Amino acid sequence: MTYMLPYKTKQFFFELIKLGVVCGAFYFIYQKLVNNPELDFHTFITFLLKKDIFLLKNILLLLFLTFFNWFFEILKWQTLVVPIKKISFKNAFEQSLGSLTASLFTPNRIGEYGAKAIYYTSNYRKRILLINLLGNMMQMLVTTVFGVIGLYFFISKYSINVNYYKFVQCLLIGILIIILIGYGLQKTKFTIKGFSLEKIKHFILGFPKKSSVIALFLSILRYLIFSFQFYLLLWLFGSDITYINTMVIITSMYLLASIIPSIFIFDVIIKGSVAIYLFGILGINEITVLSTITIMWLLNFVLPSILGSYYVINFNLPKDTD
Q: Which of 33, 171, 200, 299 fits 66 for a cystine, CB–CB 3.0-4.6 Å?
């Protein structure tokens, strides 16, 4: 005999889960700010006050860039979803910020996949998971392309001591490993996010080309905006380096930080460690680099997740009617 929980009890537990997600996100933000081993909170605030970061014109300019960073991300999500289900920009806004809040404290933000899928009825959820994977792959592709170019110029310009013989050896070994892994995966039932590689390949190749091109273009715009925001913060902190030289470091930093395996909880620390090394070559001090990364995190993750908490609290499961 199956015992079914009363409707009101289910609603109570559902509300409790939503409240737990929001509380978990806020607790994570608090811990990252107050108990950050890389950057003391009091030192951070004192440094910001000393550099006049809280001037109205600076705040408005930084918020302007954050707005467009997320505007293009939300527009990208709407563009990718529309081929399977038409949604408004308002819907895309709610789903993007709500899923950010729900995934903020999950490893590698994996919670974003489930959070976005749950906004849709069961007949859409598998495709939504694949669309989210496609969107993340596009952003990673942009990061990789810009990063490889930046890293090439970084190594050339700053005469980094690279043993090219060993580099070529490692590259050949890496290619061989990838080929062997690829061959092995074809012979097994390996899955990504619960989908076989064949199904993912079929979905990506069959996805509307126009939507893919627009989404890729929006990914590039996002990258250029948050990269410029990083440069602007360094400039506001008094770093005397040109935009081109800074972009060489920034693109290299984002590439290296992306390929280092990490849990999202430690993403800020890993980015900080990579950035300290790279910008240290240009003579930029540690407090400037760590403060820049922390503000980037506050503007582009914390602020949107605070807004997203409203949508988490007011979220209701969709009914399987469409």
A: 299
Q: With H, G, I as helix, E, B as strand and everything else as coil, classify residue 191.
A: strand
Per-residue 3-state assignment (H helix, E strand, C coil) for 223-269: HHHHHHHHHHHHHHCCCCCCHHHHHHHHHHHHHHHHHCCCCHHHHHH
pLDDT tens per residue across all 322 residues of the chain: 455 566 677 677 778 888 888 888 888 888 888 887 778 888 999 999 998 888 999 999 999 999 999 999 999 999 999 999 999 999 999 999 999 998 887 776 788 888 899 999 988 998 999 999 999 999 999 999 999 999 888 888 876 655 555 555 555 665 665 565 555 545 555 455 555 677 777 888 888 999 999 999 999 999 999 999 999 999 999 888 889 989 999 999 898 888 765 444 445 555 667 888 888 888 888 899 999 999 999 999 999 999 999 999 988 888 765 5
**pTM score, two decimals?**
0.83
The H or E element containing residue 192 is strand 191-192
Three-class SS state of 196: strand
In the chain, domain spans: 16-32+41-153+208-313
